[in-house]
């Protein structure tokens, strides 16, 4: 019979592989969890240009003022250089002067398509559904479609997306259902917005600074505008995580204006630095959250994140903290203080 020292040695030999494995597992760090992807789709409303309308004074040559033509070219160049997908929503009445379609305004839409970007329907005259009712809104959508569809057909394309002006989608569930059926029948899907902002207020202030040749104010507006947009992105991204449990692929609303033309490169660079990847509207809409029903029937328009939260009965605390524009910008823009 072997003594106890021998038995102890045998036991230690048997335990060595287990101890070694435990030591190895203790020293190997667990791989860090992959952070959720941050994605954003950029959309522009009021093409061919937000400040173009049938009453815009005609310059000596053509119907597009030289400054607007230059601003539009800068915006397209900025989008192309940034290599970001984007879609522009068209108000076809902005193509007219005294009821006549202007070739140079139509050319601005062709330039958008030449840049590989998309176009969608935003009604002819930017009509407010809640103000005019379903029949009038449908008529205005068809008026834009009559211009947009043949323009796209020349390139083998069809319009697929519709954006409600002011994000006003109906005061009643019946009106919303009627509009959805109408749009489906004409091959359109509603383009939601999850990141809303007041870029139009900043743009109005910027336009006044441009008119006055006030370069100092222009510089100040550009410097503060991009951080403002980033705060809006951050706010709605956090709300999507709070509501859904993950960062939703966002859909952001901007407008075709001079301020966005002059700040888009900085805005894109800042978002990329934060880890955002730019996707098309179609790609963003693949997220299942966008299949949620929209039962929002207020007279006002708002983010789809807020709409979904209201449907769940979230308290007022959920919506608190949304960034606002500085008073000096609102005052310079010349809009009412409660415009946001």
From TrEMBL:
Keywords: Hydrolase, Metal-binding, Signal
Domain NodB homology positions: 36-176
SUPFAM superfamilies: Glycoside hydrolase/deacetylase
GO CC term, one of those recorded: membrane
Signal peptide: 1-23
Database matches in InterPro entries: Glyco_hydro/deAcase_b/a-brl, NODB_dom, Polysacc_deacetylase_ArnD
Gene3D superfamilies: Glycoside hydrolase/deacetylase
GO biological process, one term: carbohydrate metabolic process
The name this protein goes by in its record: Peptidoglycan/xylan/chitin deacetylase (PgdA/CDA1 family)
Lineage of the species this protein comes from: Bacteria, Pseudomonadati, Pseudomonadota, Gammaproteobacteria, Lysobacterales
